[in-house]
Amino acid sequence: DRSRLLLDVLDKINEEKINIVKLNTVVDGNNARIYVTVNISGKEQLDRTVARIETVKDVTGVIRN
Fold first, then answer.
1. Residue 39 CB neighbour total at 10 angstroms
2. How far apart are CA 38 and CA 22, in angstroms?
3. Sign of CA dihedral 47, 14, 25, 8
4. 4, 28, 37, 56: which has the highest count of C-beta atoms within 10 A?
5. How far apart are CA 58 and CA 14, in angstroms?
């Protein structure tokens, strides 16, 4: 976990003008998991958003569920 991690991830989602429906974070020691439910327009937007989030410092992975 680090200061501004959630804000940095949300900024990347906002760059795609995506509506966030649900948000939950879990901190476990030095690790944080951020669960975000969003409305997207399609696979291309999803792929762009995942790529953007992966550029955030200290993000180790993005998983679509």
1. 9
2. 7
3. positive
4. 56
5. 19
Structure tokens at 31: 């690790």
Q: pTM (2 decimals)?
A: 0.89
Residues in contact with 17: Cβ distance below 8 Å, sequence separation at least 6, in sequence order: none
The DSSP letter of residue 17 is T
- The tens digit of pLDDT for each residue in 6-56 reads 999 999 999 999 999 999 999 998 899 999 999 999 999 999 999 999 999
Residues in the chain: 65
Which residue is it, tokens 């975000």? 36
Alpha-carbon distance of 47 to 16, in angstroms, equals 11
Q: Do the beta carbons of residue 25 and residue 33 sit within 8 Å? A: yes
